[in-house]
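ARCHIVE CARD
Drawer: 12
Card no.: 0347
Subject: one protein chain, sequence and derived structure
Cross-reference: see card 0346
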Amino acid sequence: MLVDPSQAPGNNILYPGAAPDSGVVIRVPVYENMAAGQRLILNWEGVLPFSTSKFVRVPGNFLDFSVPKDVLPDADSGRPECYVSYIVQEPGKPDRASGTTIIHVTQEFPAPPPVTVPAAPDGELDFSTIDREIGLPVQFPDAVIVGASWLVYARDGHPKDLVGFRAMPGETVNLWRELLDQVESGDEARIWYMGATDFISPSKMVAIRAL
């Protein structure tokens, strides 16, 4: 499962300061025998238990669940961990339970501001319209930047490309052809950087859905 906002896929380290006010996103990728009409129940154990559910509409696509921030543990509480799992329900069949993912919660440092992608102001982009000679302009804020990252998730929710690159405060970086050519319709591209305020922490994430 993807923990958002997280520094990279699979590390399961949650940065509360970088999470949107709407909550932390837990992404369930496509699983074996996924079928339309199945019900997924996400179970979260943190400061408070939380449960939510969704129905599978398109079997080949990932499902995102939102977990409110008030059920996150305080990293100073002595138990800065959460446990998340899900159950698949289908009429006439026994429930199927996933394994449990342990999520480690960091202290809530203020997150640096996100980058700006002028070509995708609403979070969607037809990547075929980008001039491959120029690239995709990404504007970085005037913040201390340690390193930037580009991450692409396929429509099934599995990571397919992760690249780190350098950027300077206030700089516009044109992401190059080799990165853009990896993006297909239905994929999701994510851009963020590690910045320094009082502490080094990830910026707010920018996600772009490929049309």
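Annotation on reverse: The chain is about 0% helix and 40% strand. The radius of gyration is 18 Å.
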